[in-house]
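thought: fold this chain, then report.
action: predict
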Amino acid sequence: MSRLISVKGPHTTDPDRAVHIQWSMGNTCNYECEYCPTTLHNGSKPWLSTELYLETIHKICKYYRDKGRHLHFELIGGEVTTIPGFEIILKTIAEYGASAVVYTNGSRTVRWWEEAREYLQGVVITYHPLTMDEEHLFEVVKTLKGYCTIDLNIAGIGGQVIELGEVVDRLRELFKDNAQQSIYDVNITVKTMYQKYLGNNNEQQAPYYSYTDEELEILQRPGVIPRPPEPQPEQSNEPDETGHERFWATEFLYEDGSVKYVQSHQIINEGLNSFKGMKCELGYDGINIDMNGEIISSWCGAKSFGNITQLDSWQLPDTETVCPHEFCNNLNDISITKTL
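observation:
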């Protein structure tokens, strides 16, 4: 196989692309899903003070503003929408001209989402069929569509996948006449699930649910469905680039000139997540803040920059990081630009 020479995630052809800040703000959650590790929902890493969150946002935004860089925050937990004053946090990010995407179970009220949507670029909702009300999911999606981009992940519980595939079809119909995301733009997937994820030293990694062939077919469907080709004007020989895969898939470029475009959730399944020795722009085009407040170049922990609880002692990165690991297993890290 030809040698991999670069990896570029969705939208990285944009020269003004934003610095990505993925921030795991704590592990308090209002759900206790059976397949979720306790370290993601047991509250052992409680929320920090709203003031500290705001001070961190001020420092990060001012640093990159002075460098002429745009900022994009991805806020994850736990269920971050339950943080006291979370609306103020979103508003402050917006006031700096930065964008924010929230990863959520979507459980807050429709009224809450009506207020929050004014400050959001996007929402990634994971629907947990063993816990969440299906109709509430639909009401939340209706409230958000047209205001921000929406990604929808459906937890693929064994024995329910066929019905969940029908939920996906119903959800996609909501975007049929949506100006911001068409039925062909929104990403909606039923995700392959372990019966229990590896959570800590006292938990064993359980295997995947046992899926039937019919269920596997649903799980393997692409999240973004192909857009039908539009007829080109007779006088134009230029191809229409707006629907090109590079805008919603990760690009793998090989030494022989071949290019492969892969949707994020399929990269690990295809074994394309090995980048050891490549220069990765995590820590330069992106940083992560973990539940302890540690600022790291990525979830792999390749480089650390300090802790947000010590406001005056931490610094932000300005160089690439050479990948030291055999495999990259975080979808956000995988999509960050990498070169030899």
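thought: worth noting. The chain is about 20% helix and 20% strand.
final: tokens above.
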